[in-house]
Design goal:
The complex is a heterodimer of chains A (232) and B (221).
Chain A (H helix, E strand, L loop, with lengths): L4 E2 L2 H4 L8 E4 L9 H10 L4 E4 L10 H6 L3 E6 L8 H8 L4 E4 L2 H13 L4 E3 L13 E4 L2 E6 L4 E11 L5 E2 L8 H7 E11 L19 E4 L14
Parallel strand pairs in A: 1-12, 2-3, 2-9, 3-4, 4-5, 9-11, 11-12
Antiparallel strand pairs in A: 6-8, 7-8, 9-10
Helix pairs in contact in A: 5-6
Chain B lengths: L10 H10 L6 E4 L18 E4 L3 E5 L20 E8 L2 H9 L5 E5 L2 E3 L4 E2 L15 H7 L2 E5 L11 E2 L14 E3 L3 E6 L2 E7 L5 H7 L4 E2 L6
Parallel strand pairs in B: 1-2, 1-5, 5-8, 6-9, 8-10, 12-13
Antiparallel strand pairs in B: 2-3, 3-4, 6-7, 10-11, 11-12
Helix pairs in contact in B: 2-3
Chain lengths: 232, 221
């Protein structure tokens, strides 16, 4: 029997090794797998490379992982926010490496990894600092930059519901990077609000087919205070 | 120039002016900051699809107090709503909409716009600045029409319309139209054509404040 469910977040991240590259879903707090990140902090892996859109908000989730000094490098599009003080401090002290990637290139590099694409030409970033030193080509009169996929050892994502085959559905804009990160990592771990029986998810509405997911863990969010709606 | 006679557009008036140029049926992405305000001025009888980079099309207004949902936010990470008919999608689809030329208009803020439509809006280049780019570079090259909303002058009175951007660029030759507190200017192959001046402002006075040569409004036929 195929059963990808794992009983606890701690068990789900137990084999994360030092030096791992980890994709972390979320756009700000929406879709951030906070319970998996808490488990990763407790697990203790260090020297990590994190791939995500932001570099943490406030003092929780990804910001807490940064604060615990577990992250060597972050690959993201938008680190600087009103509440990114943890990242800001590490960056100014040169204690974290930043690879800044335009958001669409970040998404497509992740998608490309999951889809087996070796590299792709994108118009985004052409002629800017973020394309410096990269190969370019003019195709059909338009200028493009060569970008390579981003592979990861692990992806930590948040979905709404999942089943034991790893099928996932998401909730509203918390979907964001989840589906593409699930396909791009060797081991994708989804925290869900509920695990449902096989067949309970409408096959026409499954967003991430289970083939892309290695582990599913239900986290109890009922006892958590509602998350503050983040300021811009 | 008699400065007192010039009626500068307030931020709300700039937003209302941009909203006037967004046609029925357009798919529009409003950037973070000032452009977000444009949504407040779209006429109720005009159906416009607002896209947000974090995965929604058919974005509605802010929810009533108490109805905020942390899973339903816009690019500025503020709570929003979804209109009936709206859709959610993942990030690769969201940026395919931009890069693939499916967005009719995007509206962004800017530090500088050059005479040839280069845009600088992601990084001041200051050594202590923490850069953040988000979706700006994708929108700049992807949207069919790129509109910029910005003050005409910096706080120290320098023109933000420049011969060449001194800040790091977001995209090359990508801006189509600039809305400032003083004028509306089209970026055309022949140069920067003034489309509209605020009340009390002459073309010559605008030219004196602007860092590059402007073309006067085309004569009405």
């Amino acid at each position: 029997m195929i059963d990808k469910t794992v009983s606890t977040a701690a068990a789900a991240v137990a084999d994360v090794h030092d030096g791992a590259t980890i994709m972390i879903g979320g756009f700000g707090a929406a879709g951030m797998p906070a319970e998996l990140i808490d488990a990763l902090i407790a697990q203790g892996a260090r020297d990590l490379t994190i791939v995500g859109n932001n570099a943490g908000n406030g003092e929780i989730g990804l910001a807490a992982l940064l604060k615990a000094r577990r992250v060597r490098k972050i690959i993201c599009s938008f680190p600087r926010q009103v509440d990114s003080q943890v990242f800001d401090g590490l960056y100014r002290a040169a204690e974290i490496e930043l690879e800044l990637v335009p958001q669409g290139n970040l998404a497509e590099r992740i998608r490309a990894a999951g889809a087996g694409i070796g590299a792709f030409f994108t118009p985004t970033g052409y002629g800017t600092l973020l394309a410096e030193g990269k190969e370019t080509r003019t195709i059909g009169g338009r200028d493009y930059v060569l970008e390579y996929p981003i592979h990861a050892d692990f992806a930590l994502i948040k979905a709404e519901r999942g089943d034991r085959w790893g099928n996932l559905v998401y909730r509203k804009t918390a979907r964001n990077f989840g589906p593409i990160m699930a396909s791009a990592a060797k081991c994708s771990i989804a925290q869900v609000r509920a695990i449902v029986p096989l067949g309970a998810l409408d096959p026409e509405a499954i967003v991430t087919p289970g083939i892309f997911v290695r582990r599913v863990v239900a986290v109890d969010v009922a006892d958590k205070a509602p998350r503050r709606a983040a300021a811009p | 120039m008699n400065e007192a006679a010039v009626i500068r557009r307030a931020r709300e008036q700039m937003a209302a002016r941009v909203a006037r140029d967004i046609p029925e049926g357009a798919c529009v992405n409003l950037g973070i900051g000032l452009p977000t305000m444009v949504a407040n001025f779209l006429p109720k009888d005009r159906e416009v699809l607002l896209q947000s980079e974090n995965g929604l099309l058919g974005m509605g207004p802010a929810p009533a107090k108490g109805d905020e949902d942390p899973d339903l936010i816009n690019a500025s990470k503020q709570p929003v709503t979804l209109l009936p008919g709206g859709a959610y999608f993942h990030h690769a689809d969201s940026f395919a909409m931009m890069r693939g030329g499916h967005i009719d208009i995007c509206v962004m803020g800017a530090f500088q716009v050059s005479a040839t439509g280069d845009l600088a809006n992601w990084h001041t280049g200051a050594p202590d600045a923490i850069p953040a780019v988000g979706g700006a570079m994708d929108l700049a090259i992807g949207a069919k029409q790129v509109y910029v909303m910005m003050e005409h002058l910096t706080k120290s009175g320098e023109s933000k319309i420049v011969d060449r951007c001194t800040y790091p660029v977001t995209g090359l030759s990508c801006v189509d139209r600039v809305y400032t507190d003083l004028a509306v200017i089209d970026v055309l192959p022949e140069g920067l054509r003034v489309v509209e001046l605020v009340d009390g402002l002459t073309f010559d006075a605008l030219q004196r404040m602007t860092g590059v040569p402007l073309l006067p409004p085309a004569p009405t036929k």
